[in-house]
């Protein structure tokens, strides 16, 4: 087995794994991040980066509390990453408008709004005054003036660069980034994970965090641990209409249009249980284009610049699994964030960084226990 200065192995280089590694490095704790592919190029890269406003003081559910812990830190965290790396993740408060969707209204309201925040309802003429390019048939809308966004690819680039820049006093990297290294097994000694077998040899570590998104269950299954996580495909279309058409994030049910500062508009997203098939489909793209044109008719002439898909890690109850795994004293998991990985990432990273250092998490995490569905 190869020796390592690192006492923490992080399996998964998405937004959860990288955020945790960066926060550990801020505390001077070294880690190794292993990922089969390119760092940050799976679900974390593919998402829309919508950040609903949250209020920690009045959070009504464990999810609300975790989201508030994360979202309220994004302005300062984004500035910290920009100052450290020179990469702007595109954080900005663009506001949001949610239109009634008969088949998915309640789910959308739960996802996009904070229950403690009074949401203004704008009449049709007020909506049109804010966004003249909208379809006049849309009618009234809920208004979320504090809704923000970041650009996922830029945020992931900033996280990778931030991790790479963290050095110990002797100049040794605090985060050892290893893309292209697949995990083939977890090697046990009694009730401990002794090492991790990879496509590039065996790597030792004192503690192991599995943060592999939709692939997490596959890594844990050989240990006899069944974690209810399954991949949920989400397709997205990027449109370029030329001059900017809208300024607000537009929401209908669980789907959305996100206008970027450069005028491009991201349209998402589907929810498909298609296993690990990560590709765009004609039907998926068609549905998204129909949504876009229905909300903003002028998008009918926009150029389809790109389409892509990502595999979200869906959990049984929509909540992530955070904490220690079973009887293994040095094995932890942070996965199952479904559609909310990016918006929950800072809080999740803080929780896991604390647990990995034998410190109490910043919020109660009983609701996120990995064994909550066991008999």
List strands and helices in order, with pairings.
Layout (H helix, E strand, L loop, with lengths): L7 E4 L3 H12 L4 E5 L7 H4 L3 E2 L10 H10 L2 H12 L6 E2 L2 E4 L5 H8 L7 E3 L1 H7 L10 E4 L3 E2 L2 H14 L9 E5 L3 E7 L2 E7 L2 E4 L2 E4 L5 H5 L8 E12 L8 E4 L2 E5 L5 E4 L13 H14 L7 E13 L5 E4 L6 E5 L9 H12 L19
Parallel strand pairs: 1-2, 1-13, 2-9, 5-15, 13-20
Antiparallel strand pairs: 3-8, 4-8, 5-7, 6-7, 10-11, 11-12, 14-17, 14-18, 15-16, 16-17, 19-20
Helix pairs in contact: 1-7, 1-10, 3-10, 4-7
In short:
The protein is α+β, with helices and mostly antiparallel strands and 375 residues long.
Shape verdict: globular
User: What is the fourth-level CATH superfamily of the largest domain?
Assistant: FAD/NAD(P)-binding domain
CATH architecture of the largest domain: 3-Layer(bba) Sandwich
Number of strands: 20
SS summary, helix count: 10
Average residue-wise pLDDT: 92
């Amino acid at each position: 087995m190869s020796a390592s200065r690192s006492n923490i192995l992080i399996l998964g280089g998405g937004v959860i794994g990288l955020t945790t590694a960066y926060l550990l490095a801020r505390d001077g704790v070294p880690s190794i991040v292993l990922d089969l592919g390119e760092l940050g190029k799976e679900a974390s890269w593919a998402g829309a980066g919508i950040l609903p406003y949250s209020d920690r003081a009045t959070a009504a559910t464990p999810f609300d509390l975790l989201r508030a812990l994360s979202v309220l830190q994004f302005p300062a965290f984004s500035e910290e990453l920009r100052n450290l790396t020179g990469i702007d993740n595109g954080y900005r408060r663009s506001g949001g408008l949610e239109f009634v969707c008969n088949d998915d209204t309640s789910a959308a309201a739960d996802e996009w709004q904070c229950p403690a925040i009074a949401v203004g309802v704008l009449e049709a003429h007020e909506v049109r005054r804010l966004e003249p390019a909208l379809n006049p048939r849309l009618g009234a809308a809920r208004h979320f003036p504090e809704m923000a966004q970041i650009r996922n690819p830029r945020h992931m680039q900033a996280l990778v660069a931030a991790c790479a820049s963290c050095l110990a006093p002797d100049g040794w990297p605090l985060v050892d980034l290893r893309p292209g290294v697949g995990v083939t097994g977890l090697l046990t000694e009694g009730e401990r994970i002794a090492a991790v077998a990879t496509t590039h040899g065996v790597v030792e570590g004192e503690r192991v965090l599995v943060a592999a998104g939709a692939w997490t269950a596959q890594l844990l299954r050989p240990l006899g641990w069944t974690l209810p996580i399954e991949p949920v495909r989400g397709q997205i279309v990027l449109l370029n209409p030329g001059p900017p058409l809208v300024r607000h994030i537009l929401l209908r049910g669980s789907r959305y249009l996100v206008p970027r500062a450069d005028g491009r508009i991201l349209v998402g997203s589907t929810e498909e249980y298609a296993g690990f098939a990560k590709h765009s489909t004609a039907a998926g793209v068609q549905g998204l284009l129909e949504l876009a044109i229905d909300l903003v008719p002028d998008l009918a002439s926009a150029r389809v610049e790109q389409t892509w898909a990502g595999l979200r890690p869906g959990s049984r109850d929509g909540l992530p699994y955070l904490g220690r795994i079973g009887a293994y004293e040095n094995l932890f998991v942070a996965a199952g964030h479904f559609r909310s990985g990016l918006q929950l990432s800072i809080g999740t990273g803080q929780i896991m960084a604390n647990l990995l250092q034998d410190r109490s998490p910043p919020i109660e995490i009983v609701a996120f226990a990995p064994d909550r569905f066991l008999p």
